[in-house]
Amino acid sequence: MEAKQVAIIVLAAGNARRFGSDKLMADLDGAPLGLRAARNLTGIDAAAHFAVCQPKAVISSLYAEAGYALVENPHAELGLSGSLHLAVAAAAKTQAHALLIALADMPFITASHIDALIQACDGEIIASSDGNQLMPPAIFPRATWPFLLETKGDAGARQILGRARSLAAPIGSLRDIDTPDDLAASKSLPLGIDHDI
Predict the structure, then answer these.
(1) Which long-range contacts (CB under 8 A, 24 or more apart) does 160-164 make?
(2) Is the pLDDT of residue 166 over 80?
(3) Vertex 127, ends 122 and 132: CA angle to 5°?
(4) pTM score, two decimals?
(5) Helix axes 111-120, 33-41, angle to 10 degrees
(6) Which of 119, 123, 196, 193 has the alpha carbon at shortest distance from 164?
(7) What pLDDT was estimated at residue 197?
């Protein structure tokens, strides 16, 4: 598949309960944590770039400046699945043949890995792998979008990814930041590489 056939969506509407503050605006090497992955993906010539955010989220304006169309999630308390439903609705308004979902709290996602996911997409769902489990970023061909609309609660697409084809990601690039300790640890390692992965 070609990038122009894919809608890229960054999910950024979580409540960051474990972090205790506005996680996506936390500083990571001189830039907001939540903007790093999005910036890495702006160079991809996709059909569209969307960011799903809570209303009035501080980071929303930064996504808009980076070229993302904003999708508001006014009910983030209902869990990740609500953001997935909004992502599908946004992508459905485009001519995209596939939807690529990335998470805003995974700041080390690389454009080269996203390119590899897109190129590998041939009708199957493809998820990233750290060698132990399947996770986002993941790409969903249009025919599979109804599965995303069936998700409920905060589990998101976990069950769907369990039957996806896997594509290995660069070591350390799938680290997510859930707590201040995660953020501190990521700053102490070159490029956020986690040698335990």
Answers:
(1) 160/125, 161/125, 161/127, 161/134, 161/135, 161/136, 162/134, 163/125, 164/124, 164/125, 164/126, 164/127, 164/134, 164/138
(2) yes
(3) 140
(4) 0.89
(5) 50
(6) 123
(7) 29
